[in-house]
Amino acid sequence: MNTKNYLNLKLEVHILYWIAFLLFFTLIWGTYDNDYERNFMIQLFSLPSRLVLVYGTLFYLFPKLLLQEKYLKFILYYTLLLVTTSFVIQRPIIFYFIQNYYLPFQSTSFFAATELMNTVIDVNLAAIIPLGYAFIKIWQNSRAKNTLLQRQNHVLLEEKEDKFIYLRSKSQVNKILLKDIVYIESLKNYIKVNTIDDEIMCHKSISSMQEILPAKTFLRVHRSFIVSLNFINSFSSKIVNLKGNSIPIGRKYRDSVKEVLEV
What we know:
- By secondary structure, the chain is of the alpha+beta class.
- It has helices at residues 3-7, 11-33, 36-45, 47-64, 71-101, 113-125, 128-159, 206-212, 254-262; strands spanning 164-169, 172-177, 181-187, 190-195, 199-202, 218-222, 225-228, 232-235, 239-242, 245-248.
- The protein has 9 helices and 10 strands.
- The strands form 3 sheets. A 5-stranded antiparallel beta sheet has the order 5-4-3-7-6.
């Protein structure tokens, strides 16, 4: 997947964003000290580090890590990119150029802790809007795809004799035969589909799975479990056993489970 597909913005929009960004902060800081020209130059010379952070994140970290659901790596590499752009690009520009011409005070140490922290905050500030926008577009795109898959699954279950569903796992879509599903387990925002040969994780609720699975074959026995009737070996009032797995029966589901299994 390519982040460009999510942003889908023309070059002019990017240019207008950065112009608006420059003018906004020039106005904010210029109003404070009534020196708009000086503040405009400070914002202008701060652009290189901000551009590297924003576009390095959008066009490399997003598609390579975030969209592949490598969240911890994304956070780590984003932090490293932020620190690198702040210390290697922004801080030298401020220390060796900006403060000599545009700042009323002089920092005597390149590695002054407060100055370094202010630099990191200043660089990261520019990323909030574009990265926030990208996050929203990715979320909307993912939601739209899941909705489409949900509709397709309903159609497939109605039309196909050898029934199957499609489930998105990370960056790929998996075709799963219903006859191969042993049970489904809810894990907070994810579900784990246990089949005869594999385990598939996908970002989906167990309730939405219950809606698309045929009730004559699959049974909700717990708020966290759906089981296939085809694989049940034995059961009691509290447990269903299937293929070496003991699945608890929730108190809320005991009557419906008893009704289905003992009829």
